[in-house]
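thought: fold this chain, then report.
action: predict
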Amino acid sequence: MKELLKIVATLRKKCPWDRKQTLNKIKSLFINEVYELVDKINKKNFKGIEEELGDLLLLIIFTSQLLKEKKKSNFFKILTRLKKKIIYRHPHVFKNKRVKDVKEVLRNWEDLKKKEKKGKKSSVVSGIPKILPALHYAELIQDRVKRVGFDWEKKEDILNKVEEEIKELKEAIKKKEKKEIENEIGDILFALVNFSRHLNLSAEESLKKACQKFIKRFKKLEKEFEKKGKELKEVSLKEMDEVWEKIKKNN
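observation:
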């Protein structure tokens, strides 16, 4: 680790590209690397996971170097703070505090977070990055409030909520109120995320798979008409629907 810190410090002094980097400029690099890491995890590409973790670690070290140059922090201060936080928030591991289950662990975690604020007002749903993809953002919000007991008890009740929201959407469509329609669509998606979470499924991943399935089928649709010497813009929607249904049955 010390060698890596020295290497990054050297890069900042001698590499023209590295010298030009700022906190603002490297923000997007973090987002890209995390997505690349998640992609490798999804594919169970363990060599790829190893490589992407290295790239992410490099960005963390690089950022700590930028903070060091600004005299705002440094890598060892970051490590020390992290170590203290881990120990403090896991009294059931490091201080022999007894807990019944995971729910109690999460409740304790939220209580300890509030104590860390030293009297400052803080909501359970504070600090969730708005930059997150919307479905994942919704899931994190729901997970946070679940920790304090604000959650659905039965999956069936959530489905009823989805149906209720769909009815409200239909009413909004009849009124032709664009803002209201937008709100109702959001409510439906939020309820579906809740339902997915109760099934231990990721709404983000479910939608991603649905998109990939659609792409796969659409490519087959294109090929079917290519065989007939036709381009899609020359084909009627009815013809496309007929082929689409055949593709769905076989896939």
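thought: worth noting. The two ends are 49 Å apart (CA to CA).
final: tokens above.
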